[in-house]
Amino acid sequence: MAAAEPKSSTLSSLQADAPIISHYPGRAAELAEEIDRLRGAMTETFLREHSLIADSVVELSRQLDRKINEYMKVVRLSRE
């Protein structure tokens, strides 16, 4: 029996959550893209600043937290 192929690690969070967010596909997709953008910006800023507590890194982290919370709210509402 052949082993199942592992899922690609390049799947975005949107693809992984597609059935859950089907009630809000436009908004959830928009939020997922914004979350990915903020993650990238925060990583780049951390690498440039060499500090997790630099004001610019902390501000991006706060923005990212707000977007993740908003995304989770959309997902939760789609389950109701």
Automatic annotation (TrEMBL):
<dbReference type="InterPro" id="IPR018540">
    <property type="entry name" value="Spo0E-like"/>
</dbReference>
<dbReference type="InterPro" id="IPR036638">
    <property type="entry name" value="HLH_DNA-bd_sf"/>
</dbReference>
<dbReference type="InterPro" id="IPR037208">
    <property type="entry name" value="Spo0E-like_sf"/>
</dbReference>
<dbReference type="Pfam" id="PF09388">
    <property type="entry name" value="SpoOE-like"/>
</dbReference>
<protein>
    <submittedName>
        <fullName>Spo0E family sporulation regulatory protein-aspartic acid phosphatase</fullName>
    </submittedName>
</protein>
